[in-house]
Amino acid sequence: MTGSGPKIREGASAILFSTDGRLLFQLRDNVPGISDPGKLGFFGGGREGDESFLDCVVREIHEEIGYFISPERFEFIGRYVGPDLWTPNSTLHAELFLAREVPIEGLTISEGKLKVVALHELERIHDSLAPPAEFALGIFLGRGGMSLVGDDHDGGALWSQTPRDEDSSAADESRRRTAIPSVSRPCTHKSGGVKHRG
Asked: CA-CA distance, 41 to 47, in Å (whole number)?
């Protein structure tokens, strides 16, 4: 929007799994002017022009890891619409996706560094997670947004996630619910997993 009215920032990010089932994180540069410097987040960024959120995540992932993942490989798993804590007096609309079977060999990381983490290692790196990554993992693990941010920090935001597919296997559901119990600790920062450029 133009003028002095409310501003809306939009973007998309993705939880990426390697071919051997490990998570691919972006270790964010530790420089001033970006959100969550030095923390672990997921790859993604802001929407450009009239591109869809899916087009945005496809483009951003390709730009940031140097590997093209076709749109049909991305699964939408959640969205955030609410106050943008990085940009005052603004609203953030962020959409979160998931893609699997990303080969680590040959990735070219354009911003930050690649950090590869097995699910059983998440508790060990928990304090290094950027709040948006922590929230995204909560959605993926089936815990839902409000259990991560708590009722006292809602701030009028709307979090949603896609309903579970009726055909999901019991093993997949069990893995999502039991992988890291500590991720559900409260956090007060909600930026929807979108990387902010400085």
From this structure: 18
